[in-house]
Amino acid sequence: HAFTLCTSRTPSDDELREMLGFLAVQRKRLADGWVDVRDVAGGGNDVLAGLPAAATPQDAAAWTLLARVLLNLDETVSKN
Question: At what angle do helices 57-71 and 13-31 cross, to 10 degrees?
Answer without folding.
Answer: 140
